[in-house]
Design brief:
The complex is a heterodimer. Chain A is mostly helical. Chain A contains 20 helices and two strands. In chain B, helix 3 runs antiparallel to helix 4, helix 6 packs across helix 10 and helix 8 crosses helix 10. Classes of the chains: A mainly alpha, B alpha+beta.
Chain lengths: ~675, ~350
C-alpha cells in the first residue's frame, strides 16, 4: 500500500490546509494502518474477521442452548439466562454474522468483479464498518452490564415495554440495532452507487456477475427495509423512555402494529440474508461445472422478482395473530408464489451442472450443499404457506428447522463456499482441499443431525423459545440427537480454523486464477494489489474473463483460446495510481454514535449531547478533509478531479464519479494521461 | 413411533435421519399435531397432507438431481470441455409454470379451508368461553354459567365451542394441538377460536402450551383441555358455579382459611364467597384441578408444599416487578395449614 504514496513529495509543496482536529494519518501499515484504512479490501477483511468472531459467539450461545435442551427439565441455564441466550443467538447470527459477512463479500469483491478501484465512498465505507463494530460491541456488552436483551430477536410488544421488561436489556437491543441499522443503510447506499456508477467500460447491467446483481438487489432491500425497523425501534424507545403509548393497548396503542413494522422489515431481511449467498453459488457452480450459468437473465430476473415479492409476504409471520380470513388468504397466496422464482433458481442451478465437467472442490461441495439444503428449507416454507395449518406449525420447532435450513443450509453454506472460493484472491494461497473436505462433511452431517430432528420435534408439538420441557411430552430423543449434532458442527468449525492456520503455514502462492474461473477478479494478482486493476479492463461479455480464455466450437463445446497477450500485465506494478488517503474521522464519527447510544440506554442526556458533539465534530472534520491529500497527488493537474482543495466533503478520488463523464464510468482512475486524454 | 412412521411425511424426515442415527424415539407424543384427535385438527391435517406429499416429491427430485449431477457429471480424465449451454427458454418456462400451477391449486384449497375454519359458530346454544392469558397461566371464564377457572379448560364433546381469546398483559398464544390450531391472545383484542371434540375424545385430557414468547416463564405456561360428555359437563358446570364453603372455626382448614386472608393470599386469589383478589387464578374449586401453576405441577401435597415454600424458585417469576407470585416467607406450619384449607376447596 505504501507504493501509492510518492516518497518525494514530502515538503516541497505549498502547505496543505491544516487538519482541523487531527494530523492526517499517513501510515498505511500496521495497527493504525488498519484503523484508518479506507481501502475496500481491508474493510472487507475487517468485516469478515469481525463477523467470524461473532459467529463463534453466536455458535457458543447455540451450544449452551442445545446443552440446556439436551434432556428434559435441564438445569444448566436459568430461565432468564436462556431467554437472553436465544435472543442474542438470533440477533447475533442475523445482524452480526450473516449480514456483515455478506457485507465483507460485497466490499472485497463487488469492486473487483466490476473492474473498479474502490467503492464509491471509501470513507463512508469505513464509517459503516466502525458503526457496525461499535453497535456489535454495544449490544454484546450488555452481558457484562446487567443482562443481555431477552425479548427475542423479534422483540414483540408489549413484552418489551418498560412494564414487562423494566431492566436495560431491551434498551441495549434497541440502540444496538439502531447502530447496526445505520451501518447497513449507509453501506447499502455505497454499494448501490458503486455498482451503478463504477462498472468498467462495456459492463452493462446484464453483463454483471450474478453475485453483483444479487448484491445490488439485497442493497436495495436494505435501503428500504432498514428505515422501517428504525422507525419501529424509535417508537419503542419513545414508549420506554418518554411514556409514549404506541404499543400499549390500555392507552389505545396496538401491539400488533409492532408486529407489522417488524415483519415488514423482517421478511425482506430474510432475502437480504439469502440473496448474497445465492449470488455466491451462482458464481461457484459455473466455475466448477465449466459451463455458463444456465439462463443468466432468468436467474437475475428471479432474484429481482424475489426482491419485489419479498415485500408482500410479511403477514405469513402473523397467521395466528387473528387478522381475519381476507388478509390471511392474500398473504398465503403471495407466500406460495414467492416459491416460484426461488424454484426457478434451483432448477437453473441444477441445469448449470447438467452435463458439466464437475470438479468437486470444496467451494463446489458447499455450493451443491447449498442447493440441496436450501431446497429443504424452501419446501418446508411452502408447507407453511398453507395458512390454516400454519397455525399448527407456527412457533414450533418445525419453524426453527425451516429457517435454519434457509439461513444455515442456505446462507451459511453459500458463505462458506464463498470463503473457500475467494480465499486465494484475498490471501494469495488456497485453503487445504483435504482439510476442507473434512470440514464440509462434518459441517454437512452436523447440520442435518442438528436441524433435521427439529422438523420432527416441531411436528410433535415442541414450542420454540422454551428453556425447559417435561419428560412426558416425548421430546427427549430427538433433542439429544440435535445436541450431539450441534457439537459436530462445532468440531467442523474447529477444523475450519485449523485449515486456516495450516494453509497459512504451508502457503503456496495460488496465482491469479487458481480455479480457472470466469469473472474479472481473477484477472488480477492474488492477493489483490491496493489499486486492484493496473489497467481498467474493458468488458465485452458476461463472464468476460472466461471468454478471453475459451471459445466455443461449432457444436458448442468449449475450446481453449491462445492465451491473451495481456499475460504480462499481471507483473505490472503500479505505484502511480491515485488512491484515497486514510482517515481517522469515520471512526471518530462512529464513536460519537456509540457514546450517544450508551448515554440513551442509561438515560443520561448530557453524555448524549457530548456524543452528538463528537459525531458532529467527526463529520465536520471529515467534510473539511480532502479525500486525497494534495501532497499525495500524482500530477492530476488536468481533467475533472483537480480541485481537491475545494472538496466539499464528498468522496473524491480517482475511481470515483467526479464531475466528468468518463469519471462517472469509473475509468478516470488511471494515469494522468488517461484522465486528460 | 409406529403410527408416525406409517405416515408418509413423517417417513420422509425419519428415513433421512434414521440413516444417520440408526434409531428413533419411542414414547407418547401428547402434543403431536400430525396425530390429530379432534375434527378441526383432522381437517387441518387432511388439508396439509397432500401439500407435504407434493413437497416430498420435489424433495426427492432435487436431492436426486444434485446427487446425479455430482456423480454422473463429475470430471473424468481429460473430458474437460463440456458443451456450453447458455439456457433453454422452453424448459425455463416449464419449470416456472409447473410449480406456479401446482401452487395455484394448493392456494385454492387453502383459501376454501381457511374460510370454512374461520367461521365463528353463532346462536344462543353455542357455548362461549373467555380464554385469558396471564403471565404465566391461563384463565377461563364461562359467562353463562358464571364460572371462573384456570389452566384446565373443560369442554363438552360434539359441540362447536367459541373461545374468545385475549390477554391482560403481554401476547400469549392458546394451543391445544390435537384438537385445534393456535390463536394469539393479544391484549386489547378478542380473537375467536373454534374448538370441537369428538365422542371418542370423551374422558380424555389433551395437552397444550402457550406458544407466543411471553417473557421469563413462557416455557411454564402450559394447559390442559378436559373433554366431557354432555351429562358430565353439565354436572361439572353446576359444581363449579357454587360458592366455596369455608371451614368453620375449629374445623380442619380453619386456621389456613384465616391465614389465607391475613397473609395476603386473598388479595390476589378469589375464593368465591370468601375473597375477591383479581391477580392470580381463582381458587374456589382448586381441588377439582389435577395441575396448578400454569399446569406444570401435579396438584398433590408435595408439589403444593414445594410451591408455597418459595414460588419464584419453583417456577421462575419476577414478583419484584409485579410479575407472578412472591415468596410469602411462610413457616412449615403455616404452609401445612394453608394446604389444609386449599384441600377443602372442592
Amino acid at each position: 500500500m505504501t507504493s501509492v504514496l510518492e516518497p518525494s513529495t514530502t515538503l516541497e509543496l505549498p502547505p496543505a490546509p491544516p487538519d482541523p482536529v487531527l494530523r492526517r494519518p499517513r501510515n498505511t501499515q500496521g495497527f493504525w494502518g488498519w484503523i484508518t484504512t479506507v481501502d475496500h479490501k481491508r474493510i472487507g477483511i475487517m468485516y469478515g474477521v469481525t463477523a467470524f468472531v461473532f459467529f463463534l459467539f453466536g455458535g457458543f450461545e447455540a451450544l449452551l442452548i442445545r446443552l440446556q435442551l439436551a434432556q428434559p427439565n435441564g438445569t444448566l441455564l436459568s430461565a432468564d439466562l436462556y431467554n437472553q441466550l436465544f435472543t442474542m443467538h438470533g440477533t447475533t447470527m442475523v445482524f452480526l454474522v450473516v449480514m456483515p459477512i455478506s457485507a465483507a463479500f460485497f466490499n472485497y469483491f463487488a469492486p473487483i468483479m466490476i473492474g473498479a478501484r474502490d467503492v464509491a465512498f471509501p470513507r463512508l465505507n469505513a464509517f459503516s464498518y466502525w458503526t457496525f463494530l461499535f453497535g456489535a460491541i454495544l449490544i454484546n456488552s450488555s452481558f457484562l452490564l446487567g443482562g443481555a436483551p431477552n425479548g427475542g430477536w423479534f422483540g414483540y410488544a408489549p413484552n418489551t415495554s418498560i412494564t414487562f421488561s423494566p431492566g436495560h436489556n431491551i434498551d441495549f437491543w434497541i440502540f444496538g440495532l439502531q447502530l447496526l441499522g445505520i451501518a447497513s443503510t449507509v453501506g447499502a447506499v455505497n454499494f448501490i452507487v458503486t455498482i451503478l456508477n463504477l462498472r468498467a467500460p462495456g459492463m452493462s447491467l446484464f453483463k454483471m456477475p450474478v453475485f453483483v446483481w444479487m448484491t445490488l438487489v439485497a442493497s436495495f432491500l436494505l435501503l428500504f427495509a432498514m428505515p422501517i425497523i428504525t422507525v419501529a425501534l424509535f417508537l419503542l424507545m419513545f414508549d420506554r423512555q418518554f411514556g409514549a403509548n404506541f404499543f400499549n393497548p390500555a392507552a389505545g396503542g396496538d401491539p400488533v402494529l409492532w408486529q407489522h413494522l417488524f415483519w415488514l422489515f423482517g421478511h425482506p431481511e430474510v432475502y437480504i440474508l439469502i440473496l448474497p449467498a445465492m449470488g455466491i453459488v451462482s458464481e461457484i457452480l459455473p466455475t466448477f461445472a465449466r459451463k455458463p450459468l444456465f439462463g443468466y437473465p432468468v436467474v437475475v430476473f428471479s432474484g429481482i422478482a424475489i426482491g419485489f415479492m419479498g415485500w408482500g409476504v410479511w403477514v405469513h409471520h402473523m397467521f395466528a395473530v387473528g387478522l381475519g380470513p381476507v388478509a390471511v388468504s392474500a398473504f398465503s397466496i403471495s407466500t406460495m408464489f414467492i416459491a416460484v422464482p426461488t424454484g426457478v433458481k434451483i432448477f437453473n442451478w441444477l441445469a448449470t451442472c447438467w452435463r458439466g465437467s464437475i470438479r468437486l472442490s470444496v467451494p463446489m461441495l458447499f455450493a451443491l450443499g447449498f442447493v440441496a439444503m436450501f431446497t429443504i428449507g424452501g419446501l418446508s416454507g411452502v408447507t407453511h404457506s398453507v395458512s390454516p395449518h400454519d397455525r399448527q406449525q407456527t412457533d414450533t420447532y418445525y419453524i426453527v428447522a425451516h429457517f435454519h435450513y434457509v439461513l444455515f443450509g442456505g446462507a451459511l453454506f453459500g458463505i462458506m463456499g464463498g470463503i473457500y472460493y475467494w480465499w486465494p484472491k484475498i490471501f494469495g494461497h488456497l485453503l487445504s482441499e483435504r482439510i476442507g473436505k473434512l470440514h464440509f462433511w462434518l459441517w454437512f452431517a452436523g447440520f442435518n443431525l442438528t436441524f433435521g430432528p427439529m422438523h420432527i420435534l416441531g411436528l410433535e408439538g415442541m414450542p420454540r423459545r422454551i428453556y425447559t420441557y417435561d419428560e412426558n411430552l416425548g421430546f427427549d430423543y430427538w433433542n439429544m440427537v440435535a445436541t450431539i449434532g450441534s457439537f459436530v458442527i462445532a468440531v467442523s468449525v474447529l477444523v475450519f480454523l485449523y485449515n486456516v492456520w495450516h494453509s497459512r503455514r504451508n502457503a503456496v502462492p495460488a496465482g491469479p486464477d487458481p480455479w480457472d474461473a470466469r469473472t474479472l477478479e481473477w484477472t488480477i494478482p492474488s492477493p489483490t494489489p491496493a489499486y486492484n486493476f493496473a489497467e481498467v479492463p474493458e468488458v465485452h461479455e458476461v463472464d468476460d474473463f472466461w471468454h478471453r480464455k475459451y471459445g466455443e466450437d461449432d457444436e458448442g463445446r468449449m475450446v481453449k483460446l491462445a492465451p491473451p497477450d495481456t499475460e504480462g500485465s499481471l507483473d505490472i506494478h503500479r505505484d502511480d495510481v491515485h488512491l484515497p488517503s486514510p482517515s481517522y474521522f469515520p471512526m471518530v464519527a462512529s464513536f460519537g454514535l456509540m457514546v450517544i447510544a450508551y448515554a440513551m440506554i442509561y438515560r443520561n442526556y448530557v453524555v448524549a449531547v457530548v456524543g452528538a458533539l463528537v459525531l458532529l465534530g467527526g463529520i465536520y472534520a471529515w467534510g473539511l478533509e480532502p479525500s486525497s491529500e494534495p501532497h499525495d497527488d500524482h500530477g492530476h493537474d488536468g481533467g475533472g478531479d483537480a480541485p481537491h482543495d475545494a472538496d466539499d466533503g464528498g468522496e473524491h478520488k480517482g475511481v470515483e464519479p467526479a464531475d466528468t463523464p468518463d469519471a462517472a464510468l469509473g475509468v478516470s482512475s488511471g494515469t494522468a494521461e488517461e484522465v486528460t486524454s | 413411533m409406529s403410527n408416525l412412521l406409517a405416515r408418509r411425511r413423517g417417513l420422509l424426515v425419519v428415513v433421512v435421519l434414521a440413516l444417520l442415527t440408526g434409531g428413533c424415539a419411542n414414547s407418547d407424543k401428547p402434543q403431536s399435531y400430525i396425530a390429530p384427535e379432534g375434527p378441526i385438527a383432522r381437517q387441518l391435517d387432511r388439508l396439509w397432507d397432500p401439500v407435504f406429499a407434493i413437497a416430498a416429491v420435489f424433495f426427492f427430485l432435487v436431492q436426486g438431481l444434485v446427487l446425479w449431477v455430482a456423480i454422473r457429471y463429475r470430471r473424468r480424465g481429460d473430458d474437460d470441455n463440456p458443451k456450453q449451454v447458455h439456457g433453454n427458454k422452453a424448459m425455463e418456462i416449464g419449470w416456472t409454470a409447473a410449480p406456479a400451477l401446482i401452487l395455484a391449486g394448493v392456494g385454492f384449497f387453502t383459501v376454501i379451508n381457511l374460510v370454512d375454519l374461520d367461521r365463528i359458530p353463532k346462536g344462543p346454544e353455542v357455548l362461549t368461553v373467555e380464554v385469558i392469558g396471564h403471565q404465566w397461566w391461563w384463565e377461563y371464564q364461562y359467562p353463562k354459567a358464571g364460572i371462573v377457572t384456570a389452566n384446565e379448560l373443560h369442554i363438552p364433546a360434539e359441540k362447536k365451542i367459541d373461545l374468545r381469546v385475549t390477554a391482560t398483559d403481554v401476547i400469549h398464544s392458546f394451543w391445544p394441538p390435537k384438537l385445534a390450531a393456535k390463536i394469539d391472545a393479544v391484549p386489547g383484542r378478542i380473537n375467536h377460536m373454534v374448538l370441537e371434540a369428538d365422542a371418542d375424545d370423551v374422558g380424555k385430557t389433551f395437552f397444550g402450551q402457550c406458544m407466543e414468547y411471553c417473557g421469563l416463564s413462557h416455557a411454564n405456561m402450559r394447559l390442559k383441555v378436559v373433554v366431557h360428555d354432555a351429562a358430565s359437563f353439565d354436572k361439572w358446570q353446576r359444581d363449579q358455579a357454587k360458592k366455596a364453603s369455608i371451614p368453620a372455626a375449629g374445623a380442619p382448614g380453619a386456621t389456613g382459611a384465616e391465614l389465607f386472608r391475613t397473609k395476603g393470599c386473598g388479595g390476589c386469589h378469589t375464593v368465591k364467597g370468601y375473597t375477591a383478589g383479581q391477580v392470580g387464578p381463582d381458587l374456589t374449586h382448586f381441588m377439582d384441578r389435577k395441575v396448578f401453576a400454569g399446569a406444570i405441577f401435579p396438584n398433590d401435597l408435595d408439589s403444593l408444599r414445594t410451591w408455597l415454600r418459595d414460588p419464584p424458585k419453583a417456577k421462575p417469576m419476577d414478583p419484584d416487578n409485579g410479575l407472578g407470585m412472591p415468596n410469602l416467607g411462610l413457616t412449615e406450619n403455616e404452609i401445612n395449614d394453608l394446604i389444609a384449607f386449599l384441600q377443602t376447596l372442592k
